[in-house]
Task: structure prediction
Amino acid sequence: MAPATTPAHRGYTVGPISHTAGIHLAKPNYSFEKRQREIAKKKQQDEKDARKREAREAAKAAADAEAKTPDSGN
Result:
């Protein structure tokens, strides 16, 4: 008796069919994303530093104004 002729015996491959054969998706550019995150982080840090600097200058100006006013209590 001859062996059964199945697609595997005829040189065909048996397995799941790939629906994405021949389609190449763009690879994500992780360096660009990382650079954008770094830029956003630096911008936030610069804004925070500016707020702190303004607060220090305002406190210093208030302290200078207090020191320059004469004491009327004595």
